[in-house]
Amino acid sequence: MLAAQAAVYARAMQIPEPAAPAQAHPDWLLPDWPVPPSVHALCTTRAGGVSQAPYGSMNLGAYVGDAPQAVARNVQRLTQALGGRPVMLKQVHGTHLLALQAQTPDYQEADGSYTGQRGLACTVGIADCLPILLCHVADGQATQVGALHAGWRGLAGEQGVGVVEAFFASQAAMGREPLKNFKPVMASAAKQSIKNSNPVIASAAKQSISDFESSIDGSPRRDAPRDDALMQTSPRPAAQWLAWLGPCIGPQAFEVGPEVRAAFMAFSPEAAQAFVPLAGGKFLADLPLLARQRLAASGVQAVFGNDGSPTWCTVGNPSRFFSYRRDKVTGRQVASICLL
């Protein structure tokens, strides 16, 4: 990418916020899931933008070589359709998450975000990786939303702790707005989830939470409060989270090496169901199924969207979806969710 383009993307795009969401492009995906009316979510496709080939037309990827002015206009169209500001990320296939606030700048390095503030859209870019949208519902009201970028690396993570586990070990798992200047602590719901895991995963998850506490705001980590102090916060259980899976590379096209299968199998034996052996020691991997397994292990049973069928495959639908594996030089669609 040219240096001049990098300078443009280094600062947050100044986009006026509309008073109400505009109608989304008819080709975009609107999740079909039982969330309250205050939740607005969508997933873009190739259609509805101004970018030129090979990024035609609704490219929302800022680091793929497209003209910055075209990307900015596309982001503006996304903003109008959402009715809130999409906070764009610079994704690195990791597990770091951002707690979004009004002043959060665009293009910070992270692979997921969450917020309880209205008018901020958790947004992830995709072109074969799996987007996971999340909504916490209590007493019929949405209290928190989130979005995760889940390629196989981010989903598998390290020592069995990937982006899903990081999310449910974060303040987001409490289903409420993070406190100002908070130091993240281990929520009781996350601790219970860990307690129910096998010893290897439990140990790795505890270490991940410790690392998360010190990394989310760059401040020194404080010791977590005692269990009785945690119980006084009365966190809502993870079972009240709903998830929606967007389009990604499908199990018909996602050919991987044995190291990918090993990364999942080492900590989740049930992952064997998501791999079909091929000649030469390779496998076809079912990314949506792997995500459903990780979500279920975190207490999320209500999962909607991508079921692994061909219509959801980014590689197999070139007229509708961008795909890096298929085209190499290409744009990015996004999945976004916000509270209005």
Highlighted features:
single chain, 340 residues, alpha/beta, CNF1/YfiH-like putative cysteine hydrolases, 6-stranded mixed beta sheet, 4-stranded mixed beta sheet, 20% strand, disordered N terminus
Task: Write up what this structure looks like.
25% of the residues lie in helices and 20% in strands. The protein has 340 residues and is α/β, with parallel strands linked by helices. The protein has a single domain (3-182, 239-339), classed as CNF1/YfiH-like putative cysteine hydrolases. The chain starts with a helix and ends with a strand. Mean pLDDT is 82; it is low at 1-19 and 177-239.
CATH top-level class? Alpha Beta
Largest sheet: 6 strands, mixed
Helix content: 25-40%
Structural class: alpha/beta
Oligomer: single chain
What are the SSEs and their pairings?
Elements: H1 3-9, E1 39-43, H2 68-82, E2 85-87, E3 89-90, E4 98-99, E5 108-109, E6 112-115, E7 120-126, E8 130-138, E9 141-150, H3 152-156, H4 163-168, H5 188-195, H6 199-215, H7 227-231, E10 241-245, E11 255-256, H8 258-265, E12 275-277, E13 283-285, H9 287-297, E14 302-305, H10 324-327, E15 333-339
